[in-house]
Request: fold
Amino acid sequence: MSDTIFAPDFVERPFWWEAAPPTRRSDAIPAEADVAVIGGGIAGLSTALELARGGLRPVVLDREPIGWGASSRNGGALAGASGLGRSRSNLQEAVDPEILAAMVEEGEQSFDDFEQLIEREGLDCDYRRTGRFTGAHSAKAMQTLAVRGDMLNRARPGEAQLVPRGDVGSELATERYYGGLLVQRAGSLHPGKYVQELARVAEEAGASLHGGVSVDGYGAEGSGFRVRTSAGEIKAGALMVATNGYTGGVTPWQQRRLIPVGSYMIATEVLGRERVAQLLPKLRVYGDTKKVLYYFRPSPAGDRILFGGRASFVDSDVRRAGARLHRFLLHLIPALAGTRITHAWKGNVAFSFDFLPHVGVQDGVHYALGCNGSGVVTMTHLGRQAARQILGRGNRPSAFSRLPFPTMRGYRGNPWFMPVVGGLYRLRDRLDGWREPGWP
Ligand SMILES: Cc1cc2nc3c(=O)[nH]c(=O)nc-3n(C[C@H](O)[C@H](O)[C@H](O)COP(=O)(O)OP(=O)(O)OC[C@H]3O[C@@H](n4cnc5c(N)ncnc54)[C@H](O)[C@@H]3O)c2cc1C
Reply:
């Protein structure tokens, strides 16, 4: 592997942690709480904020520092309902049309709510409304984008526009895409800052946050739960699971319904704002239609490019995965030849077997899980929905609670089949005509 692609200050750490690392908060847990929330990412903190605002005393417990999970490792690309169909092209046939329409409407509303949350709470997280460009990796994929565009335009007229192949150059410096879809209501933020700001406001509202405390088990006690943690026991009136791609054996019902998948990212060295603006003139967030998709964006300062994808379907070495992503980036944007990378990192997302996010309650335990790779807005929304469920205040149940949360016979949380699925996905992209450097 060539070392010349790694800048001298290269680190295997999220770029976002330079400005906003995860935080430990307090080790001293209370003996009692109204609600114990397992997981201190966006979902857990959003739940805690809403609960605290609703007058309850939530306690958030994370095995690692608060914000350590996918919430501080993601691309910071935001979408409403347009994120829904991304991992499943046949969503229209697979889901009851009335429930799907309700999901799309709720997804779109969640984006408005998200923007309002940032404004209302004064969250300092470099949020910008940018629009999202999704590139078509094949001529056929333009048809899929047209269907997705229609679905979005039905919910909100004027939301999405197809970009013909001849106009792709005005969006980004590549000739690899056959056209694309532009979705207006999409944006970007600094995920490290966002999750820490969410922690700040949740704490100010009365939530108690504890990093470095793992939940090791729980049992029913009276009308609530006794929660066993690495720092002692907590008596809690309700229990909430917000562990997404890091869900383990403590909550086996949830674990059986989630497929943890590693996603990887790299940051280029500083390129300068002018150069980035030449390559990504509209400074949007970007993705594509491949089964094994790329996602990318300018850094908040506009002087680097951050690029991500499924560089591996087995638990891969971050440096090796970073080198692979670097190859993909240069293949997509050849003008970046000679550019080195300063950061490479990995995080877990959670896929569900129906490729949809879920919020609900099972055996008295609440959950918001299954981001399917697109969860900054969704998990903020579903965390709030779960809190309303606990508070008994929802006007109507979330559309994302209306479908069963499926599993697969014999599945216990070990995604042994992912290398096979990954191979098939890559084959699909290849059969569609996509050529990637360095793949057999
Ligand atoms: C590389 C990457 C890029 C992504 N890009 C985007 C993007 O551009 N846009 C987008 O919308 N989404 C993106 N996502 C997805 C998004 O980051 C997630 O959907 C979201 O952060 C999930 O938040 P969460 O709070 O549910 O889970 P996490 O933030 O993963 O938090 C779960 C937490 O649970 C804790 N935990 C687990 N078990 C226990 C236990 N027993 N006791 C205590 N704590 C426990 C873990 O330590 C972890 O901190 C990306 C994800 C990754 C990894």
In short: The chain has ten helices and 20 strands. The chain has one domain: 3-431.
